[in-house]
Amino acid sequence: MSVAKINQLFSGDLKAINLGLEEFTASLQHEGAEALQVDWKPPAGGDRHMVQLLERVESNSALKRDQANDQAVERLMKSKPTLIDIGIAADVVPGMHKKLVLHSGPPVTWDKMAGPVRGAVIGGLIYEGLAKGPTEAEELAASGDIEYAPCHHHDAVGPMAGIMTSSMPVWIMKNETFGNTAYCTLNEGLGKVLRYGANSNEVIKRLKWMGDVLSPVLKQALEMHGPIDMKNLIAQVLQMGDEGHNRNRAGTSLFIREMAPYLVMLDRSKQELSEVLKFMHTNDHFFLNLTMPACKAAVDAARDIDGSSMIVAMARNGTEFGIRVSGLGDQWFTGPASRVDGLYLPGYSEQDAARDVGDSVITETGGIGGFAMAAAPAIVKFVGGTPQDALTFTRRMYDITLRENDTYQIPALDFRGTPTGIDLFKIIETGVLPAINTGIAHKDPGVGMVGAGLVKPPLKCFHDAFEAYAERYGTKP
Amino acid sequence: MKRIIVRKDAYYDSVFLMLINQDVKKTDSISEAVVAMGTDMNRDLLKGMNMSNADVESATANDLIVALEGETEDALNQAETAAYSLLKKKSRTSEQAFRPTSLAAAVEVLPQANLVLLSIPGAFVAREARKALERGLHVMVFSDNVPLQDEIRLKQMARDKGLLFMGPDCGTAIINGKPLAFANVIRRGPIGIVAASGSGLQELTCSIDKAGSGITQAIGTGGRDVTQDVGGISMLMGIEALAADGETTVISLISKPPAETVVDSAIEALRKSAKPAVVHFIGARRRQDEDKIRFAPSLEDCASIAVELAGGRKHNPTEFALSDDEIAGIVADQSASFGKKQKYLRGLFCGGTLAEEALFVMQEALGGVYSNVHPDEGYRLADPTVSREHTIIDLGDDTFTVGRPHPMIDVSIRNEQLEKELRGGDMALLLLDFVLGYGAHRDPAGAMVDAITAARRAAADDGGYLAVVASVTGTDGDPQSLTAQRRTLQEVGCVVMPSNVQAARLALKIMQKVR
Fold first, then answer.
1. Average confidence (pLDDT) over B308-332
2. Complete domains list, chain A, with CATH
3. Would you say the pTM of this structure is higher than 0.95?
4. From CA B508, how far away is CA B387, in angstroms rounded?
5. Do A27 and B103 touch (CB under 8 A)?
């Protein structure tokens, strides 16, 4: 037994850190000692069981969690998502086939699907020519002839209902650093659109036009332009008031600027080119379907790292909210999808709202979106807040993330990097949940978007995930 | 009518809330007020009080609950406003400086930190203490209710790392002259102390200060350290560190009676230190002195012997600082006017060890004294709030402190118990301790003089006399000032003795005159 360190304490000045009664700090300071008060809160919101799990994980000296998380977040940040092409889903998306319908979020069966998702499935089947009208499509959808799978299981992501069928055109986003690829459909615009569950003739007609005109035109322009470095583009849009999830006005504008010189060179009618430009111009969210696969391609590079507690997917299917953790493989951990706290378009209210839906939380998972809210003060009105609230939202996310992003920066925070790499461990420890911006769909199929706002994910999925993490990586109880 | 409000994500320290509770309850026409965090225990408590609702049921330990019951809407409004303004007072002071929210963040702000003091709820101590040890920081745990297994594990870890681990349930320590938790302002000097007793350590250090000497370090171990299970890990490390400390020339060791094996290893460690030592096991028979180790009969004697060993004033082994004649005069004076029904001694103590010391002085001579801290079950009070014949109560007992701060902070606990004792009508002598220093009430004597005066008047109205004997554990360097506190008590007719043991001895002499 050596007491040298205790004698060292006796020979220097006492410098104390105090957790608990503030008076003890005051006493020490009054007597001339250096003392620092910690604003301590019970870990895990005072949930003793979760505290025990934290203990089990922390006391496993064989687990190199910090190193594993360093590796995960570094892979995420070193990723270089690059837009390389547009293709048809059946040709490029792994495992895609005529009777497969991809949807957002964790797995869900037809009988449990939320209204907007069903509406979009119906629209997708009509679009594919598998059904003539909604009634027939609904029968087919429920018949068992159609296979459903999450976009995430096919290297893809989809906003809101996230429906992708075999003949839809998709963006092809390649991670130049690690070689993996992610896919996403092209954004259809606002209002009555498939991703919000709308499936009327007007919706199908637009989808057809996107397949026949929009995507071939953009594909050609992109070929002339060459690959687009999305990381660079996203870094720019964060300095222009976007956060890449709920505000994409700057991104859409920049994308048009990138494309315009090549669009005018194409051997297409002025009419068509004007339609294409106008379509992008009138849809502020056109860029969302690029930030999403860019984040997906980057985050996927951080999957399956043994010991890492970094979250590598968050997604909702309108029924459930699900997450995946790097060190826990393919497993989804889910909880009931939440209600969105937000603002409604005129004529709609909370009663009309569907529950939280969509893969667009991949943006938060990748370090932008709600986590970069401080970069986009213009959208705080969605949550009835002030620009100060936007700063607070972002600041709080540093408590549950592993790093400050080395590329994505926030001017209002003195160009501090965005909070990047969500750590499940820190979520459990602090009780702080990820801040997510999102759109709100109508609860009935076929109506569309009714508002936007902020959503709190269900605590349950994080608890379940951490239970599994502690079981796999913690000491035995 | 009732009003129940739950504020999400608003955490406040529980002791702070207890103090607010007291103030809110004082609002006119308010019969019940609970301002508390939504912990399991508090939610059950509210349910039991019939003050719960769905919001309360779903509250977490991070949510603040304000539950009020009052006669009028106005009263409820007033109480609610009072609660919020008191809470705000706290948040405003916390806004003054940047506050890290975790130990890890604090270490970044204060990288030279060398000790972590924990007074958070016991269930969460193990994790924070482990983190402190992992960072190479010494630890003091003020909190109680830390599971025994955690204590053992943490202390073994501290030993492996060569770090000092004081507590859990360690109320007092002084490191490098700086007070940790409940501690007095003590002169620096040559005496190093290891103590498994909080109030005992306060009495010992104050007595050393009064005797004109001073201390190097006062290390607290927490009461459970000296049990067989823990094996005195902190005590032994403390002795060894003091043995190696160049400033320390005398080691003093005090403890509630330790497990035999712990006594043996502690004595062995003292022998090995080759420094003169003085030991006092509170409430235990005195052991035989050894070459370099002396055993003291009381805390004050322990201090006095330590001072002598350190080359200071010679130890005077008499019972009282005053002459026999002076003591006889006081005894005659105090025992002259008891009424017929006045037969018993009642000791109301804030310091647990001080209560035990008084009990040990009187137990045999008075033919048995009941107490909630009595080692003999036959004399243990069934209900700590109900006295029986001669009784000494440790008001720091859990029974008195559920949902309330310790009686050294919350003086109303003792005032309420005093009212209860008066109703019995058979109390002749009231024996009190007053503990000063950091952490304690700002004016413990002043907060009790009204109650003392009222009690003495009630006895006089009944045709009798209430003797009040007290001691004050403190120094003039303390924020409350020993001299001022003594004067306050003397002004209302209390006999104030220089130490706890002398107060107990005097009380015994007076009580022996009753029959």
1. 95
2. 1-40 (no CATH), 65-75+302-473 (3.90.1700.10), 81-293 (3.90.1710.10)
3. no
4. 18
5. no
